[in-house]
Design goal:
mainly alpha
Protein backbone atom coordinates (compact mmCIF):
# COMPACT_ATOMS: atom_id res chain seq x y z
CA UNK A 1 0.00 0.00 0.00
CA UNK A 2 1.40 3.39 -1.01
CA UNK A 3 1.53 6.32 1.46
CA UNK A 4 -1.32 8.06 -0.35
CA UNK A 5 -3.46 4.92 -0.20
CA UNK A 6 -2.69 4.57 3.51
CA UNK A 7 -3.83 8.14 4.17
CA UNK A 8 -6.97 7.61 2.07
CA UNK A 9 -7.84 4.40 3.95
CA UNK A 10 -7.28 6.08 7.32
CA UNK A 11 -9.44 9.08 6.43
CA UNK A 12 -12.23 6.97 4.96
CA UNK A 13 -12.36 4.91 8.16
CA UNK A 14 -12.58 8.15 10.14
CA UNK A 15 -15.42 9.40 7.95
CA UNK A 16 -17.55 6.29 8.14
CA UNK A 17 -17.24 5.79 11.89
CA UNK A 18 -18.42 9.38 12.38
CA UNK A 19 -22.07 10.45 12.04
CA UNK A 20 -21.08 13.58 10.12
CA UNK A 21 -20.80 11.94 6.71
CA UNK A 22 -24.14 10.18 7.18
CA UNK A 23 -25.93 13.35 8.26
CA UNK A 24 -24.37 15.44 5.49
CA UNK A 25 -25.04 12.73 2.91
CA UNK A 26 -28.66 12.37 3.98
CA UNK A 27 -29.28 16.12 3.90
CA UNK A 28 -27.59 16.43 0.50
CA UNK A 29 -29.50 13.57 -1.12
CA UNK A 30 -32.86 14.57 0.37
CA UNK A 31 -32.38 18.18 -0.73
CA UNK A 32 -31.37 17.24 -4.27
CA UNK A 33 -34.23 14.74 -4.47
CA UNK A 34 -36.77 17.28 -3.23
CA UNK A 35 -35.52 19.92 -5.68
CA UNK A 36 -35.68 17.43 -8.55
CA UNK A 37 -39.25 16.54 -7.58
CA UNK A 38 -40.28 20.19 -7.44
CA UNK A 39 -38.73 20.96 -10.83
CA UNK A 40 -40.44 17.92 -12.37
CA UNK A 41 -43.78 19.02 -10.91
CA UNK A 42 -43.18 22.52 -12.31
CA UNK A 43 -42.38 21.05 -15.74
CA UNK A 44 -45.57 19.00 -15.58
CA UNK A 45 -47.60 22.10 -14.74
CA UNK A 46 -46.02 23.88 -17.71
CA UNK A 47 -46.99 20.97 -19.96
CA UNK A 48 -50.61 21.06 -18.74
CA UNK A 49 -50.83 24.80 -19.42
CA UNK A 50 -49.46 24.32 -22.95
CA UNK A 51 -51.97 21.55 -23.61
CA UNK A 52 -54.83 23.78 -22.49
CA UNK A 53 -53.70 26.61 -24.76
CA UNK A 54 -52.25 24.80 -27.79
CA UNK A 55 -53.79 21.36 -27.54
CA UNK A 56 -50.36 19.73 -27.38
CA UNK A 57 -47.27 20.05 -25.23
CA UNK A 58 -43.58 19.58 -25.91
CA UNK A 59 -41.38 20.68 -23.03
CA UNK A 60 -37.61 20.71 -22.68
CA UNK A 61 -36.66 18.82 -19.52
CA UNK A 62 -33.04 19.86 -19.91
CA UNK A 63 -34.00 23.52 -19.45
CA UNK A 64 -36.89 23.14 -17.00
CA UNK A 65 -35.50 20.41 -14.75
CA UNK A 66 -31.82 19.61 -15.10
CA UNK A 67 -30.40 23.07 -15.70
CA UNK A 68 -32.29 24.41 -12.69
CA UNK A 69 -31.23 21.38 -10.63
CA UNK A 70 -27.56 21.85 -11.48
CA UNK A 71 -27.82 25.56 -10.67
CA UNK A 72 -29.31 24.79 -7.25
CA UNK A 73 -26.87 21.99 -6.49
CA UNK A 74 -23.85 24.29 -6.62
CA UNK A 75 -25.29 26.30 -3.73
CA UNK A 76 -25.90 23.09 -1.76
CA UNK A 77 -22.30 22.02 -2.37
CA UNK A 78 -21.04 25.39 -1.15
CA UNK A 79 -22.67 24.66 2.21
CA UNK A 80 -22.05 20.95 2.73
CA UNK A 81 -18.56 20.40 1.29
CA UNK A 82 -16.84 22.71 3.82
CA UNK A 83 -18.50 20.59 6.51
CA UNK A 84 -16.89 17.48 5.06
CA UNK A 85 -13.44 19.06 4.83
CA UNK A 86 -13.38 21.03 8.09
CA UNK A 87 -11.97 18.13 10.14
CA UNK A 88 -9.15 17.02 7.79
CA UNK A 89 -6.28 18.99 9.36
CA UNK A 90 -8.12 20.88 12.11
CA UNK A 91 -8.87 17.65 13.97
CA UNK A 92 -5.22 16.60 13.72
CA UNK A 93 -4.19 19.90 15.31
CA UNK A 94 -6.82 19.68 18.04
CA UNK A 95 -5.91 16.09 18.97
CA UNK A 96 -2.20 16.99 18.91
CA UNK A 97 -1.50 14.32 16.29
CA UNK A 98 -0.48 16.89 13.70
CA UNK A 99 3.16 16.83 14.82
CA UNK A 100 3.27 13.03 14.63
CA UNK A 101 1.88 13.23 11.10
CA UNK A 102 4.57 15.69 10.05
CA UNK A 103 7.38 13.60 11.53
CA UNK A 104 6.15 10.36 9.95
CA UNK A 105 7.93 8.87 6.90
CA UNK A 106 5.03 10.06 4.73
CA UNK A 107 5.81 13.21 2.75
CA UNK A 108 3.64 16.33 2.84
CA UNK A 109 2.69 15.82 -0.81
CA UNK A 110 1.27 12.42 0.06
CA UNK A 111 -0.49 13.77 3.17
CA UNK A 112 -2.25 16.58 1.30
CA UNK A 113 -3.07 14.37 -1.70
CA UNK A 114 -4.36 11.55 0.49
CA UNK A 115 -6.62 13.77 2.59
CA UNK A 116 -8.00 15.49 -0.52
CA UNK A 117 -8.61 12.22 -2.36
CA UNK A 118 -10.40 10.69 0.63
CA UNK A 119 -13.00 13.44 0.83
CA UNK A 120 -13.19 13.59 -2.97
CA UNK A 121 -14.13 9.90 -3.06
CA UNK A 122 -16.87 10.51 -0.48
CA UNK A 123 -18.17 13.36 -2.62
CA UNK A 124 -18.12 11.22 -5.78
CA UNK A 125 -20.11 8.56 -3.96
CA UNK A 126 -22.79 11.06 -2.96
CA UNK A 127 -22.84 12.59 -6.43
CA UNK A 128 -23.16 9.18 -8.03
CA UNK A 129 -26.32 8.49 -6.02
CA UNK A 130 -27.95 11.61 -7.51
CA UNK A 131 -27.58 9.93 -10.91
CA UNK A 132 -30.75 8.02 -10.03
CA UNK A 133 -32.71 11.18 -10.88
CA UNK A 134 -32.01 11.23 -14.64
CA UNK A 135 -32.08 7.41 -14.79
CA UNK A 136 -35.59 7.29 -13.32
CA UNK A 137 -36.83 10.15 -15.50
CA UNK A 138 -35.44 8.41 -18.58
CA UNK A 139 -38.01 5.63 -17.98
CA UNK A 140 -40.89 8.05 -18.52
CA UNK A 141 -39.68 10.71 -20.97
CA UNK A 142 -37.00 11.59 -23.49
CA UNK A 143 -34.31 14.23 -23.07
CA UNK A 144 -30.81 15.03 -24.28
CA UNK A 145 -28.17 13.22 -22.23
CA UNK A 146 -25.20 15.27 -23.43
CA UNK A 147 -25.85 18.43 -21.32
CA UNK A 148 -26.60 16.19 -18.35
CA UNK A 149 -23.23 14.47 -18.67
CA UNK A 150 -21.42 17.79 -19.08
CA UNK A 151 -23.40 19.12 -16.11
CA UNK A 152 -22.16 16.22 -13.98
CA UNK A 153 -18.65 16.93 -15.24
CA UNK A 154 -19.17 20.49 -14.05
CA UNK A 155 -20.31 19.23 -10.63
CA UNK A 156 -17.23 17.00 -10.32
CA UNK A 157 -14.88 19.88 -11.17
CA UNK A 158 -16.77 22.35 -9.00
CA UNK A 159 -16.81 19.91 -6.09
CA UNK A 160 -13.07 19.31 -6.46
CA UNK A 161 -12.46 23.07 -6.33
CA UNK A 162 -14.69 23.51 -3.26
CA UNK A 163 -12.99 20.59 -1.51
CA UNK A 164 -9.50 21.96 -2.22
CA UNK A 165 -10.54 25.28 -0.69
CA UNK A 166 -11.85 23.35 2.33
CA UNK A 167 -8.56 21.47 2.68
CA UNK A 168 -6.69 24.78 2.72
CA UNK A 169 -9.08 26.28 5.29
CA UNK A 170 -8.74 23.21 7.52
CA UNK A 171 -4.94 23.46 7.35
CA UNK A 172 -5.07 27.04 8.64
CA UNK A 173 -6.74 26.40 12.00
CA UNK A 174 -7.42 23.79 14.67
CA UNK A 175 -11.04 24.88 15.05
CA UNK A 176 -13.31 22.91 12.73
CA UNK A 177 -16.13 25.47 12.83
CA UNK A 178 -13.72 28.27 11.93
CA UNK A 179 -12.36 26.15 9.08
CA UNK A 180 -15.87 25.60 7.71
CA UNK A 181 -16.74 29.31 7.85
CA UNK A 182 -13.42 30.35 6.29
CA UNK A 183 -14.06 27.93 3.43
CA UNK A 184 -17.65 29.10 2.92
CA UNK A 185 -16.58 32.75 3.09
CA UNK A 186 -13.86 32.33 0.48
CA UNK A 187 -16.21 30.45 -1.84
CA UNK A 188 -18.85 33.18 -1.46
CA UNK A 189 -16.23 35.76 -2.45
CA UNK A 190 -15.44 33.72 -5.57
CA UNK A 191 -19.18 33.52 -6.28
CA UNK A 192 -19.69 37.28 -5.91
CA UNK A 193 -16.78 38.07 -8.22
CA UNK A 194 -19.11 37.17 -11.10
CA UNK A 195 -21.45 40.02 -10.11
CA UNK A 196 -18.55 42.42 -9.62
CA UNK A 197 -17.24 41.55 -13.07
CA UNK A 198 -20.67 42.30 -14.56
CA UNK A 199 -20.72 45.70 -12.84
CA UNK A 200 -17.30 46.53 -14.29
CA UNK A 201 -18.67 45.84 -17.76
CA UNK A 202 -16.96 44.46 -20.84
CA UNK A 203 -13.54 45.82 -19.92
CA UNK A 204 -10.26 44.00 -19.43
CA UNK A 205 -10.59 44.33 -15.64
CA UNK A 206 -14.21 43.22 -15.71
CA UNK A 207 -13.40 40.15 -17.80
CA UNK A 208 -10.46 39.28 -15.53
CA UNK A 209 -12.61 39.54 -12.40
CA UNK A 210 -15.37 37.45 -13.97
CA UNK A 211 -12.84 34.81 -14.99
CA UNK A 212 -11.78 34.40 -11.35
CA UNK A 213 -15.33 33.36 -10.43
CA UNK A 214 -16.40 29.76 -10.97
CA UNK A 215 -19.92 30.83 -11.97
CA UNK A 216 -19.39 31.40 -15.69
CA UNK A 217 -17.14 28.35 -16.11
CA UNK A 218 -19.67 26.10 -14.39
CA UNK A 219 -22.60 27.54 -16.34
CA UNK A 220 -20.86 26.74 -19.62
CA UNK A 221 -20.62 23.06 -18.66
CA UNK A 222 -24.24 22.98 -17.49
CA UNK A 223 -25.31 24.31 -20.90
CA UNK A 224 -23.35 21.54 -22.62
CA UNK A 225 -20.37 23.68 -23.63
CA UNK A 226 -16.93 22.22 -22.96
CA UNK A 227 -14.32 24.94 -23.39
CA UNK A 228 -10.60 24.55 -22.75
CA UNK A 229 -10.45 27.76 -20.73
CA UNK A 230 -13.08 26.43 -18.32
CA UNK A 231 -11.18 23.19 -17.78
CA UNK A 232 -7.95 25.13 -17.33
CA UNK A 233 -9.66 27.33 -14.74
CA UNK A 234 -10.82 24.41 -12.63
CA UNK A 235 -7.59 22.42 -12.84
CA UNK A 236 -5.33 25.41 -12.21
CA UNK A 237 -7.48 26.54 -9.26
CA UNK A 238 -7.40 23.03 -7.82
CA UNK A 239 -3.61 22.82 -8.12
CA UNK A 240 -3.22 26.30 -6.59
CA UNK A 241 -5.37 25.47 -3.55
CA UNK A 242 -3.57 22.19 -2.93
CA UNK A 243 -0.18 23.89 -3.36
CA UNK A 244 -1.17 26.51 -0.78
CA UNK A 245 -2.34 23.73 1.54
CA UNK A 246 1.05 22.08 1.11
CA UNK A 247 2.84 25.32 2.00
CA UNK A 248 0.68 25.87 5.09
CA UNK A 249 1.27 22.33 6.35
CA UNK A 250 4.98 22.54 5.56
CA UNK A 251 5.28 25.85 7.45
CA UNK A 252 4.12 24.08 10.63
CA UNK A 253 7.42 22.17 10.67
CA UNK A 254 9.30 25.34 11.48
CA UNK A 255 7.12 26.52 14.33
Amino acid sequence: MTPVQAIIAKELRSYFVSPVVYVVGTVFLLTVGLLAYLYVVFAGAQAIQLMQVQGSAQINLNDLVFRNLFASTRFILLIILPILTMRLFAEERKLRTFEFLLTSPIGINEIVAGKFMSVFLVFLGLLGLTGLVPLVLALFCDFDWYPILTGYLGLVLLGALFLSVGVLASALTENQIVAAFVSIGFLLVLWLLAGLGSLLGDTAIGQAVSYLSFMEHYDHLVRGLIDTKDLVYFFSSLVLMLFLSHRVVDSARWK
